[in-house]
Write a structure and sequence with these properties.
about 475 residues, two-stranded antiparallel ribbon, 19 helices
Amino acid sequence: MNLLPLLVVFPMFMAIVLNFLHGKDKLIKYSSIALAIILMTLPFIPNYGYYFFGNHGLVEAMTSGIAYLFNPAKQLILIVLTLIASLTLISSAGEKQSGLVTSLVLMGLASVTAVVLSEDLFNMYVFYEITAISQTGLLLATGTENSYKSALRYLIMGNFAGSILLLGIGLLLSITGTLFIPEIHANLLANPTNPVIYGGALMLIIGLCYGSGLPPFHTIKSEVYAGAKPFISAVLQTFSKFVLVALMLLLFKLFYGLPLFANLQVLLIVISILGMVFGVVMALLQTDYRKLLSYHAISQGGYVAAGLALGTPLGFVAGIFHAINHVIYKSALFLGAHIVSNENKTSKLDKMGNLLPVMPFVAFMVLCAKLAISGVPPFNGFQSKLLLAEASINANLPELTVIMILVSIGTFVSMMKAFYMIYLKPNGLKDLEELKKDYNNPMLKYPKFSLLILTILCIILGIFPEIITNTLYNSFDNFLSTL
């Protein structure tokens, strides 16, 4: 029985159903928790292999219809994606607008799942756009003036980038006559010098940068993360990271083996370096904690792109492993920021402080996540950054390793400064007993639970990275030779 569509159809259907329950917070709360449990089982149900839908068949010797590919690496990505979405649903259980947020999280989950699974360009494009719409909706759900402004700017830029991406797909369709990715690659290899290929590749890269927040779209993407409620930002940045992975792999599936591919790799590595450097420099300059975390999300996206752009088996493993680790510890940091923001009613670092005696366990969990993103052992970020460094050295790019190390140092400095400002610095603005009273807000038990799960994962994957890497090594050892 073909059950793979459940991964896309079920969350999309529930998004529609729950939208009608908007305002019934109690019902939404219990539904969200039940859904979170059900969603976690979905990636384990389908069998591996190609799946074809929508009157799929051969038309004039070309494949038509919707095509999905499900394999162990994609299953791993979808497990982590579903986990973060489920923890976001649980964290939203105490929020007044949980009905709207729940629906949009489910819509985003369904669309990113489809982007990851797609083996045909048009289906991938449709769900890429739905992902952008759900991200905009989640930003609007925050309901502040800044979030409205950021959402409008994101939509305007999205119209531009989405149109460029669609035009690139149209160019490739015009010279190959198909949207099925393996057939496009085979056709391009048969006529590798066609100048239209260059235009198509460049337009796909623009779509990649917009969807993932890499330069030149890093500022608008960081505004999206910073403008949303922090627990929502956790899933927003997760969507972006897995769209980044899916589109980077798409570029290899389409253009590997063509004369332009070497130049394409150089361009991707340059963009990834710019993402790493711009992200960490901007983070160091921030006085707002949410903006600081948002720019670090951009910087870590640069690491993921750099690993994948190397185009070696170890580079693929390191890049995807870092994407998985990043969404885990970055989600933990955003959830920690959500708890702290609720406590202080602000995210300005100079108005925070002295929270360690108020919430010592939360401070410990946030410190673990900060050490993970900084690449400090024994946390998961250390393991993936070590693999990234090894992959870049093996690819004869020691300069890239040096840049990664310098960016990690900047990340560590920024994170430790924020930790001091929030948890250790004396705060004369609020009485300690008043802070403790706010901390006992029952709605915070949901994000605290999610934060605990993510912190445990940071430690487990730091000590036992093979839980993830063994599957990735098996999937990407011969990836390029199969193209």
